[in-house]
Specification:
Largest sheet: 7 strands, parallel
Radius of gyration: 18 Å
CATH superfamily: NAD(P)-binding Rossmann-like Domain
Oligomer: single chain
Number of helices: 10
Number of strands: 7
CATH class: Alpha Beta
Strand order of the largest sheet: 3-2-1-4-5-6-7
Strand content: 5-15%
CATH topology: Rossmann fold
Length: about 270
């Protein structure tokens, strides 16, 4: 049996809009208190106000960089009780093609991977102690994208760092999953977010290729649909949360014959190029 959201204290990063805002809404509807974090202070405040109007007294928000260790501690401190559930959702889609510069690689690494590491470092030891004392542990959610299980055409930075996010989540689960820490890895394909819109309108050819790959590979979902899949996975105690179930089939085919899968990706890329 997985985690029960009712009465829990949660943190969601990247919650000013998109998937993060959808997850925060569903957590609140399920009875949790939620601290929202986002780099965009104005957008975050507007989202927090909207959610607080519907769920008064259970919403807090702290603007800042999810990859900053101090900000992680500020988010945790803003919770009304010890944090039970942390959703490392903030992510960036930056750096396209082999020409992606070192700044794009570094910022992608910090936000898409190190933000997860720093949050886990701050929370997991306490969860293990709580579980050992019989008080219950905690849940760590990594929003890692289907790109972390498969790949992301057009963006080597996104593909690589999302693979690393999956790898870190797997390591957490293998190391702490039997010691009171539930780990869930959320891996959607296309979702109606600002990230998708910006990529679709980018003048960069590789960015456009990446977005065409996402939007043609499967149905583009709403953030709330993604949030529903996540909460179902958390409740059931599953590691993978796959809003697009076909990703599981794609992953199985990749594992069964890597060379054949790469050939298929090459054909897919060719079909999307001008």
């Amino acid at each position: 049996m997985g985690f029960q959201v009712q009465g829990a204290a949660a943190v969601v990063t990247g919650a000013g809009s998109g998937i993060g805002a959808g997850i925060a809404q569903r957590l609140l509807e399920a009875g949790a208190s939620v601290v929202l974090g986002d780099l965009d202070a104005e957008r975050l405040a507007a989202t927090a106000a909207e959610l607080d109007a519907a769920h008064p007294g259970r919403v807090a928000h702290v603007a800042g960089d999810a990859a900053d260790e101090g900000h992680v501690h500020d988010l945790i401190a803003a919770a009304p009780a010890p944090v039970d559930l942390y959703v490392a959702n903030a992510g960036i889609f930056r750096g396209f093609g082999l020409d992606a510069d070192d700044a794009a690689w570094e910022s992608s690494w910090q936000v898409n991977v190190q933000s997860h590491v720093r949050a886990a470092r701050a929370l997991v030891p306490g969860w293990v102690e709580r579980a050992a004392a019989g008080a219950g542990g905690g849940v760590f959610v990594s929003t890692a994208s289907a790109a972390g299980l498969l790949t992301q055409l057009g963006s080597p930075t996104y593909a690589t760092t999302k693979h690393a996010a999956v790898g870190f989540a797997e390591w957490l689960a293998a190391t702490y999953g039997d010691r009171g820490v539930q780990v869930c890895c959320l891996c959607p394909m296309g979702v109606r977010t600002d990230m998708l819109s910006e990529g679709a309108t980018s003048a960069d050819g590789d960015a456009g290729l990446g977005m065409r790959a996402v939007t043609t590979a499967g149905r583009v979902l709403s953030p709330l649909e993604v949030a529903d899949t996540l909460l179902d996975a958390v409740a059931a105690g599953r590691f993978l949360a796959l809003p697009h179930p076909e990703v599981g089939d794609m992953l199985a085919r990749k594992a069964a014959d890597h060379d054949h899968w790469i050939s298929g990706m090459q054909r897919f890329r060719g079909s999307l190029e001008p």
